[in-house]
Amino acid sequence: MAYIPTVESLDKIYDSSVLAFQGVRYNSLIEQFQTIYGFKPDFIARSPGRVNLIGEHIDYAGFGVFPMAIDRDVLMAVKMTDDDTNIRIANVNPKYPARELDYEGPSTIITIDSTELEWSNYFKCGYKGMLEHASFDKPKGMYILTDGNVPAGSGLSSSAAFVCCSALAVITGNQFKMSKNELVSIAMVAERNVGVNSGGMDQSASVFSEKGFALNVEFVPELKATPVPLPETHPKVAFVIANTLVVADKHVTAPRNYNLRVVETKIGAVTLSKYLGLPQKDTYKDVMDAYFAAKDIPPSEQMDEMLQLVEKAFTNKEGYTRAEMAELIGMDEDAMVKEYMTRFPVQTDLFRLYQRAVHVYGEAKRVIDFRGVCENPPSDASDVPKHLGDLMNESQESCAKLFNCSCPEIDEISKIAREAGAYGARLTGAGWGGCTVFLVAEDNVDSFIKEVKEKYYRKRFPDLSEAQLADAILATKPGSGSAVFKGF
Ligand code: NG1
Ligand code: MG
Known about the structure:
By secondary structure, this protein is of the alpha+beta class.
């Protein structure tokens, strides 16, 4: 089993181009820690954000996704103490005030008020998740200083980076031995404590990523992350991430978007399993597996067939009311609400089961195709960028039209990007704002970025400084996952 590396040198994590900057950042974190607390940290835990290349909103349907870690990350400098069980957590960013938290005993561990938008809640998620899984007499106290540079609410998984980093800090400080799989599984469930019914892509990408590789993360039959090298292409290509600067605040909007999509895909799966005469399943992946049980058919063909069945199963293409949906799955309406919409409440008039189902099976197929192009690229390397780009564009189209998770700004910047020469352009992460990702010829990256800056940012956000612009749109390479640094 792959255990979290306890000591990693910075140059293993970063290539030389970013190391100069990162080294300064680590040293400054240690210095600030000393200034605040009066002693040095024992270690620094780090977990990065991610960009999803393809496979949107299908992790919670049980299907594989294709993200990669980025250079932006969350760092936590930590000193442990046996004197008490308190947690003192501060942030180098003055926007996030220092907090003092306490361990509340083995049953509660720590109270999380998910109705409140509070930065330390994300630490609490990691803390609670870890301590629920460990048996010990008394956790150690902690002194923590955090420095995160993943833009928040932008679809680059600042939240998962934060929760994974917190979980890693708690494991390391309390000397729990734990595999990366366990860390991810716990962090994944733990993040639900802040009120978002999340899948597992972000935590997987943050923890498992390897420098130079994208990651195919699969969830069924068990969590599995396969590093996949990006193929040789002609011309050489790069991924550019651009933030629309529309902040998608999931904690406010989840009942109308993210959590609603989770409900629509779950109840859709129940509907489909019932239609096919299968035992009840609540993910589209489980429905497919049950339907094709023991038949040796390639997954992408299975997905094609599921797409045809979806056409027949969902006769109402407009959308279902709550009552209609309850009838569809043969459940009493109150019982259905209690089962699927109580812990994570949702708001809508119509549940668009059909559109979501078509998106899920189609997107799952695109992930397989994308990985296929990476692993078995067409013999002519000049065909590769178009292949990958087309899949990204189809994904965006499906997100916009079927899953309704795009927004006017994402549509606009994607169009600008394609006009500026991107092979593919799509939203990344949950959508409804946040970041987009483009596949661009490496030699054109500078002029491409310049053009998008002029046509999107200067027009919509004329007051942005150069520094803010540089933060909003940047080229990125697949970075490495979680690590712990010691010995300074
Ligand atoms: P963001 O909003 O980018 O963190 C969310 C989910 C993912 C996945 C994507 C959509 C969380 C923590 N993450 O990502 O699991 O479902 O949306 O593909 O909720
Ligand atoms: Mg998130």
